[in-house]
Amino acid sequence: MHPILVSLGPVHLYSFGILVAVGVLCAVMLLRANAKQISINPDLIVDLAIVVVLSGFTGARIFYIIQFWDYFRSSPLDVFKIWEGGIVLYGGLVGGLTGFIIFTKVKQLPFLSVLDSFVPALALAQGFGRIGCFLNGCCYGKETHWPWAVSFPFLKYPVHPTQIYESVFNFSLAAFLLFLFYRRYKSGTVVAAYFILYPAGRFIFEFFRGDNLVVFLNLTLYQWISLAFIGITLVLFLRGRSSHHGNKAAHRPT
Question: Which of 6, 7, 55, 192 is 20–30 Å from 106 (CA)?
Fold first, then answer.
């Protein structure tokens, strides 16, 4: 655990904030490269990335504040201390997707093609973010005595390094999504892969998390959200495929 990366007198540079910034920068670099594959101006994609980052962090923070409302009600100024951590990834997805939809509508960009180019960069940024979580000491795992267990000063027992599990998973997911993107599958395929595979991974990792409480049927809130994302994505993807095949059949010469 190393929440403060560098201290310059009274100024502290927090590990979580630095790693998130590194993740965003790497994601933007990847987005510029991906933009050329879909014939979109890279500068326009950077503008979109800025909108998505701002709306995503807003959504992520709002979801976190709602989750810990009792704390923030008594310490309202802590709402603004985002550099210390305290975001909910699924809130970030909702907020970021909202900003994405608005921007692509206004600029009349091809929604699914651009979103296909975004999700590998998103997974890459998440990988760096989870390293930030590890250094910050949040999102820790359950007690374990496996050889790679880690200890945090605020816990009396070693735990699963769930942040590292998720970081490795996210980096691997980014590589796989990038492979799919450059194979030029039908628009929406890469998006569907992300919104199925990431929630599936998160669902599994939640069994090892020690900071989330079960809410129903021995599953945590984020496991239920993961299942919802998987279900909605499968329905939309399969419906899109069936309508695509239906249109092809309707135009087939007889």
Answer: 192
pLDDT value of position 242 = 65
Q: How many CB atoms lie within 10 A of CB 75?
A: 11
Name the strand (E) or helix (H) holding 219: strand 219-220
Furthest CA-CA distance within the chain: 79
Question: What pLDDT does residue 85 have?
Answer: 63
Contact 230, 196 (CB under 8 A): yes
pTM above 0.90, yes or no: no
HSE-CB of 174 using CA atoms within 13 angstroms:
21
Ranges of residues in the chain with a pLDDT under 70 are: 83-85, 242-254
The Cα–Cα gap between 33 and 57 comes to 24
Rounded CA-CA distance 185/116 in Å is: 10
Amino acid at 154: F
Helix (H) or strand (E) holding 13, with range, is strand 11-14
* Cβ neighbours around 42 below 10 Å, total: 14
Look at residue 245 in the predicted model and tell me its pLDDT: 52
Cβ distance 158 to 142 under 8 Å? no
d(CA 99, CA 148): 39
